[in-house]
Amino acid sequence: xxxxxxxxxxxxxxxxxxxxxxxxxxxxxxxxxxxxxxxxxxxxxxxxxxxxxxxxxxxxxxxxxxxxxxxxxxxxxxxxxxxxxxxxxxxxxxxxxxxxxxxxxxxxxxxxxxxxxxxxxxxxxxxxxxxxxxxxxxxxxxxxxxxxxxxxxxxxxxxxxxxxxxxxxxxxxxxxxxxxxxxxxxxxxxxxxxxxxxxxxxxxxxxxxxxxxxxxxxxxxxxxxxxxxxxxxxxxxxxxxxxxxxxx
Length: 248
Hints:
The chain is an all-alpha fold. 82% of the residues lie in helices and 0% in strands. It has eleven helices and no strands.
């Protein structure tokens, strides 16, 4: 009995339990989204795995700031911003910015990998997986903290909320980036179709003329950054609403 108590008390056991808890919403969402795409299972799990790694740049930044506080952006915000509302807004918007940049980089890399992205729908689904992978890794840290604290009633609440809402939120933000990445990747045929329909991106054409570049080369960049910016704003607003108590 003492042997099992010693095992249960180890960090390895707690992290393993947290990982198993975090896997439950993963299996549910993969089944919901990809049950009809079993032929892509190899790509599905590979992209999900890449998504789980997107927490590493965030953790790396935190480690860097720990050893080099002069580079700590949050420390600078704490020292220079005195208004609580501005502090909350800037802090939680920044968290959304960093996380969406980390997740958004995966779909950008996939466009140059051996995984063939043939449609905008592919872009959305693959980036859903990236968001799911990020949420999985993040949930392990949250669930581990709850298990270590020993408050299992609170842990159940955290599990239910993060399993249903936070995971879904990460997938939504990532799918927005995926959609706009798809528009960027397939912008040339889209532009040709819109031109045939008599529609024109006048602002893009004007800015391209100002920069002295081809509008067809500029439009993909604008589409890409539009998606990332929308996801950042939505993510920051989500974080801010939670910390402000506007959960629902």
